[in-house]
Amino acid sequence: MRRRLLTIALLLQLVGPAAADTDRDRARALAAEAIRHYALSEYEQALEQFRELYRLTGLPDFLYNMAQCHRILGDLQEAVRKYNAYLDAAPEAPNREEVEHHIDHCYAELARRAAWRPPTSPHPAPSSASSPPPPVSATAAPSPSVAPLHMPAPTVRHAPTKSHWWLWTLGAAAVAGGVTAVLLTIVPHNAPLPATDYGPIRF
Amino acid sequence: MRALLATVLLIVGCAAGSSTVEVAMTSEVPLVGIANLVLTVENSGTTAMTKVVTENASIPPDRTIALVFSADRRGSLKVTVDAFDTAGKKLAHGTGADTIAPSRLTQITVILESTAIVAGDGGTPDF
Hints:
The structure holds two protein chains of two kinds. Chain A is 62% helix and 3% strand. Chain A has helices spanning 2-18, 22-39, 43-57, 60-73, 76-89, 96-115, 159-163, 165-186, and strands at residues 188-189, 198-202. The termini of chain A are far apart. Chain B has a single domain, classed as Carboxypeptidase-like, regulatory domain (Immunoglobulin-like, Sandwich). Helices cover 9% and strands 60% of the residues of chain B. Chain B contains one helix and eight strands. A seven-stranded mixed sheet of chain B has the order 4-3-6-7-8-2-5, with no helix packed on it. Chain B is elongated and about 45 Å long. Chains A and B meet through helix 8, strand 1 and strand 2 of A and helix 1, strand 1, strand 2, strand 3 and strand 4 of B. Strand 2 of chain A pairs parallel with strand 5 of chain B.
């Protein structure tokens, strides 16, 4: 992601001096600012600026950047829309596989959220949602009846590490397999040497 | 990924290594006083000979010897075994053949047939 953002920045820097029109200068400045926001995890601001950059330049890469921001911010439906828009605009994108992986992940996370149900409280919930909350005492332990009914959804940003353990496992297996294949290719596989009365005699 | 790995392995295969031939020497008649065995090996038009000191061995029991060939050796292999006593008299002779290939263990059985001649008076009965 960072590389892609930098690529865009470099692109804008390269074309900037040659065609120093107002839009390009503005895009260049915006891109630098958006990258800074993104690096500082200020995704809302980065998203706005990537949106503006897409309006200015029409470069599909900014759709991808917007999708990344949406995904990180937890707006998975919008992220999927932007990812798909990016793939439509850049069907030969070099990171197509990665984008498709993000889309799959978003769908899986959306399905998981849809399937999730809050745990049922052992005590009945208040009959009226508009009823005033019970008085809070500084020393009293919180009552189960005022326990939050909705758990906060886990942030999407951390989901890939947790939910894609199998990807790491597959990667490790692939690396191990590759090393094994290389070793099998490089190291000669000699015939076994049986236990004999005499020898071995080498020719 | 596994399919890819399997394909790669099938394509590249394993690196060729040395081949081994286990020669088992047997005899239908008892052979005693074998001082050494001379093995003659023929492969791809090349002949090599080696002598193994056995120090008064006997057959039976069957005796085995391992021959190791470099990875570039392949094809038909003929092994000739001659057994000699301490006086240098040939006691037995036998041959065996098979095909060798890199990284493969091959077993060849050589049946030694006695070639000893009757010494002395040719078997004239003593009176």
